[in-house]
Specification:
238 residues; three-stranded mixed sheet
Length: 238
């Protein structure tokens, strides 16, 4: 359970064919949050460090967990899914219906459609040519930042709720929150178009024993409704 405004695990809220009105995507995110430490701590999980491999592993675990958990077998997860609006761009991880159409807050989703887009990032960002230490937020060249992609509508333009998962491989949650807050503040004070103090992350809670933390943020977008992001962080070593 998360302290300081903890996120409740919503097992049993999902019924075959329907997600609970007003809580559907939040319930999916609660389910993912509860599975993050279970995935990390599985004794049979091969130790990997790359974002691609970690996300592939997580996807496999989430599919197994959904299939075996009553009320969640209506859901599946997929990696490297094409964005609905910008089809040449790939979303790291998506939640979708499994088999039959799924009603989410009054709308029917087939298994070909994305219910919830999720970006995944390592913290720290690997050092390399073309990489930017601020990549969780923004990149100096192009639109490669996790928050930036959502904010500029390059990812998730068809959605008003999405998520970012951080695989925290070094340092503490507080360390990364301070850095990310500083990067967003610098974007604002330097006059970078579109960025403001309103883009800052707000801590929702953390569980040091399980090694998970949750933050929330809301971002305005040009010609699109604002997007609400939930940030799910998992400490890869306890």
């Amino acid at each position: 359970m998360l302290a300081d405004g903890s996120t409740s695990h919503a097992l049993g809220q999902l019924a075959s064919g329907f997600l609970a009105e007003g809580q559907s995507r939040a319930a999916i995110l609660d389910f993912i949050l509860g599975q993050l430490p279970r995935w990390r701590d599985r004794p049979d999980r091969p130790l990997r460090t790359s974002e691609t491999m970690l996300t592939s592993q997580l996807c496999a675990h989430l599919n197994s967990a959904a299939r075996k958990t009553p009320g969640w077998d209506c859901l599946q997860f997929r990696v490297e899914e094409a964005d609905e609006t910008h089809v040449s761009r790939k979303i790291d991880l998506v939640a979708a219906a499994a088999g039959d159409a799924l009603i989410v807050q009054g709308r029917s989703y087939s298994d070909f459609e994305t219910i919830l887009p999720i970006e995944c990032k390592r913290l720290p960002i690997p050092v390399g040519s073309g990489r930017d230490e601020r990549e969780y937020v923004v990149t100096r060249v192009g639109v490669g930042g996790g928050i930036q992609r959502y904010k500029e509508g390059k990812h998730g333009a068809a959605h008003v709720r999405a998520a970012l998962i951080a695989y925290v491989q070094e340092q503490s949650f507080d360390h990364w929150l301070a850095l990310i807050s500083g990067w967003i503040h610098d974007l604002h004070t330097s006059g970078t178009p579109g960025w403001s103090v309103a883009d800052a992350l707000v801590t929702h809670g953390q569980d040091p024993t399980a090694g998970i933390a949750v933050h929330e943020s809301v971002h305005s977008r040009n010609s699109l409704p604002s997007i609400h992001l939930r940030h799910l962080w998992v400490k890869m070593t306890l």
